[in-house]
Amino acid sequence: MDALAVAMVRGAYEYQGQKCSAASRAYIPDSLWPAVRDRVVGMIEDIRMGDVADFRNFMGAVIDRRAFTRLKQHLDAAKTDPGVKVLAGGSADDSVGFFVQPTLLQVEDPAYRLMCEEIFGPVLAVHVYPAAKWRETLTLVDRTSPYALTGAVFARDRRAIAEADRALRYSAGNYYVNDKPTGAVVGQQPFGGSRASGTNDKAGSILNLERWVSPRSIKETLNPPKNYRYPYMGAE
Fold first, then answer.
1. Environment class of 162 (CB within 10 Å of its CB; exposed 0-12, middle 13-18, buried 19+)
2. Could you tell me the CA-to-CA distances from 55 to 22, 42, 48, 52, 146 in Å, in that order?
3. What is the rounded distance in angstroms from the CA atom of residue 41 to the CA atom of residue 34?
4. What pLDDT sits at residue 211?
């Protein structure tokens, strides 16, 4: 649970959530949720925001006013939705820079807007599912969003990891096991998504190069035949 909580915080809030691979939705079983929730909330309350030149700050401002306004609208809508609980953060301040607090939301409806869309901000929406509905939840994860850039599963049970791998085969171009869904370094870990997140050609690998070339096959014969007849056509 400690590793999962760290992955959620780093995955969702690093770079103000403005990474294409940032975690935007999570599914946690009800048996683990209270402990995970408390850990994540505790870390969020400890996060420092400010000038990125001060390395003690974990987060800075979002990129511009347009992003700030859009994110604030999402937060305002979440606060007025009876099916959403704001567990941490939820505020935005543009008095000095465009700062949006790292926000943790618990949503009842797995089809809630922030579970389906990528808003490129420090907002993580969590749906808590009954632990007994693991398989059904895997199907839910696969079908919820058109985006398929990155994803991650945390588990100790290798059978569960293998089952998730099969069920989520097409749900993420880059798939992580017991690690946050961000941080791929081009040249070390090929990176790319499928579905509405791209064509799944992997930057940092030969698979990406093949996307941009037109292969041609060349055959050169050094001893070409001089007769149209084949050897088997000779007299018996």
1. exposed
2. 20, 20, 10, 6, 36
3. 11
4. 80
- Written as one string, the DSSP assignment of 115-137 is HH----SSEEEEEEE-GGGHHHH
Residues 143-158 pLDDT 10s: 999 999 999 999 999 9
- Scanning the structure block, which residue is given the tokens 């870990």? 189
Q: What are phi and psi of 39, to 5 degrees?
A: -65, -45
How far is residue 195's CA from residue 193's CA, in Å, rounded to a whole number? 7
Cα separation, 9 vs 43, whole angstroms: 7
Would you kindly state where each structural domain of the chain is located, as residue ranges? 2-182
| 54 neighbors 86 (Cβ within 8 angstroms) | no
Determine whether domain 2-182 maps to CATH 3.40.309.10: yes
The tokens for 71 are 């994110």
User: What's the average model confidence in pLDDT over 25-35?
Assistant: 98
| Contact of 21 with 174, CB cutoff 8 Å | yes
Give the number of residues written for the chain: 236
pTM reported for the whole predicted model: 0.88
